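INFO  loader      accepted 1 record
INFO  loader      residues=78
INFO  predictor   begin
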Amino acid sequence: MDDEYEWSDARCPKCQHSPTHMRTCTSLGCDDGCFDEYEDDPINALPGEFSICAECGGTGIEHWCPKCGHDMNTTANA
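INFO  predictor   done
INFO  writer      dumping tokens
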């Protein structure tokens, strides 16, 4: 994980560790949690066609536990 992150008071649902870490999604092309499919493939996608970022789960924020490594975005979207 990158050294640039913020602390969150949220507890990890897996190990109950607090604080957890969070940062703006670092996935290339992620724009607030979505990818513009038309920008990547204008032949097969329509303008305004978006897909959800798998790294941040559509939130635009990566959120994880530094103790056990649990991805907190998967918990929020489950």
